[in-house]
Design a protein that fits this description.
The longest helix has 30 residues. The protein contains four helices and no strands. It is elongated, with a radius of gyration of 16 Å. The termini are far apart. Helix 1 packs antiparallel against helix 2. Helix content is 87%, strand content 0%. It has a single domain, classed as Up-down Bundle (Methane Monooxygenase Hydroxylase, Chain G, domain 1). By secondary structure, it is mostly helical. Belongs to the VTI1 family. It is a single-pass type IV membrane protein. One of its GO terms (cellular component) is SNARE complex. It is found in: Endomembrane system. One of its GO terms (molecular function) is SNARE binding.
């Protein structure tokens, strides 16, 4: 497997876990604290998207047998990222605190 891909993958997994924790804590905050946490989360989401793009480019440059395996992993990461985005939308909706 590609060391470059593995490096991006490690960064993505750490970032994803951090974003998940931040989403949980943001759901418990309100006012300025919540805005600040959401700003951190949005920046993190952009970083995560960039890492996924880099992993995608790296995976596509590899041998077909390795490429297929890495692209399957990438689909999982994209799904994970979409779940995080959905969670952020839920947190930012006006009635998020009432549904928690």
């Amino acid at each position: 497997m590609s060391e470059v891909f593995e490096g991006y993958e490690r960064q993505y997994c750490e970032l994803s876990a951090s974003l998940s924790r931040k989403c949980t804590s943001a759901g418990l905050l309100d006012g300025e604290q919540k805005k600040q946490k959401l700003s951190e989360i949005k920046t993190g989401l952009e970083d995560a998207e960039a890492l996924i793009r880099k992993m995608d480019l790296e995976a596509r440059s590899l041998q077909p047998n390795v490429k297929a395996m890495l692209l399957a992993k990438l689909r999982e990461y994209k799904s994970d990222l979409n779940n995080l985005k959905t969670e952020v939308k839920r947190i930012t909706s006006p009635n998020a605190n009432q549904s928690a």
